[in-house]
Design a protein that fits this description.
By secondary structure, this protein is mostly helical. Helices cover 75% and strands 3% of the residues. A two-stranded antiparallel sheet has the order 1-2. A hairpin with a 3-residue loop joins strand 1 and strand 2.
Length: 274
Amino acid sequence: MVLPAGLWLLAFLVIPLSFMVSLSLQTGNLVDGFRQTLHWQNYADGLSTYGETFARSLWYGLLATVLCILLAYPAAYWIAFRAGRRKTMYLFLILLPYFVSFVLRTVAWRQVLSDNGPLLGPLRDHGPLPAGFHVLDTGFAVVAGLTYNFLPFMILPIYVALQRIDPRTVEAARDLYAGRAQAFGRVVLPLSLPGVFAGVIMTFVPASADFVNAEVLGGPGDTMIGNVIRAEYFESGAYPVASALSFTLTAILLVAIFVYARTLGTRGVLEAAR
């Protein structure tokens, strides 16, 4: 099992990252070409110029991840323990909007959150919201879009973890005079942590690196680092700078995941998953 996993990591992580690091240390332009000069200044320039954008991307990704947990856990819990024979149908309904492409779903949210859209328009016309109130082109709209787009990546792993819990374990806790809250806090929640752990990784990493939601739903002050990398690569042709920013983002996310795993206790999570 180690060899296939090692080959997978070598082909799809180590080699691409090596090319990225090599390109990030080059200098030149599209006309004259790029050559290896070990120009480490690309990293310093990227952090000094876009440090605020890095922080904003991580903050938006963190907010979206927390909101996904708050929304996904009750939904997954209800489907796992209360939905009965209709579990498959509810899971299908959750996934149904995601048969539409990521970009189209985000553009649809722009219509929903617009000032005269079906959500805010009636509220403004009938008085609950002031005339100058708007959501579109704000950080709130970007976080809302990220939460919506990545919500299934949180629901599904939590549901799988909850589904694997033996009901007799909860019944045993109740037989030992544990209340509903105690049975949940001491039995269900610890055993579902592997799903939460997987959901956080599957949500936080792509949400922090996303650029579509900021492009469609955000304003000029809501730019994420994904937008900067895309612009440097496709518009400016600054491949080394774009590569330096990409590798810096990858390194930050890997460190954040490592700290998260150490804080949560990876050994305990893996033991609970068995």
